Amino acid sequence: MILFQLKCEHDHEFEGWFKDGATYDAQAANGDLACPVCGTSNVGKALMAPRLRTSRQKEDAAEKQRQKVVAEATQAAIAELRKQVESNCENVGKKFAEEARKIHYGEAEKRGIYGEASLKETAELVDEGIDVMALPWDDETKKN
């Protein structure tokens, strides 16, 4: 089915549904079309804006694909970050807060470290002016 915006010789506009463009052409040539307002059969196509609309399913599929690409890129970036941290920093485990303080106050050699700290310990480090950052990965040893 195709929808055409139609217009009669008296400038009355209305819509007409047709099987296809050829069906419209045949009906117009035979004088089978009539204006619903004035009844004249002098009817033609009016200027109309095309209705370009992608299906909702196509839009949803495209959005899911975009989300998948973003998720995969994020996972790859996190994996690379983890690789860099583990290759270039020392894992001090549960002594992270203690070791971060030692480094900050000059009691231990300055170096990159990573490990574990509770939320309370992290807040205390921040209050002391010690820069810390939560790393965006799960510890594989804590998985069930």
Explain what this protein looks like in three dimensions.
The chain is of the alpha+beta class and 144 residues long. Helix content is 42%, strand content 16%. The strands form 2 sheets. It has a 3-stranded antiparallel β-sheet. It is rod-shaped and about 100 Å long.
Can you give keywords for this protein?
alpha+beta; 3-stranded antiparallel sheet; two-stranded parallel sheet; 4 helices
Briefly note the structural class of the backbone: alpha+beta
Quaternary structure of the protein: single chain
> What is the distance, rounded to the nearest whole angstrom, between the alpha carbons of the first and last residues?
57 Å
SSE arrangement, N to C: EEHEHEHEH
Largest sheet: 3 strands, antiparallel
Give the strand line-up of the largest sheet. Answer: 2-1-3
The averaged pLDDT comes out at 88
Write a brief caption for the model.
The chain is an alpha+beta fold and 144 residues long.
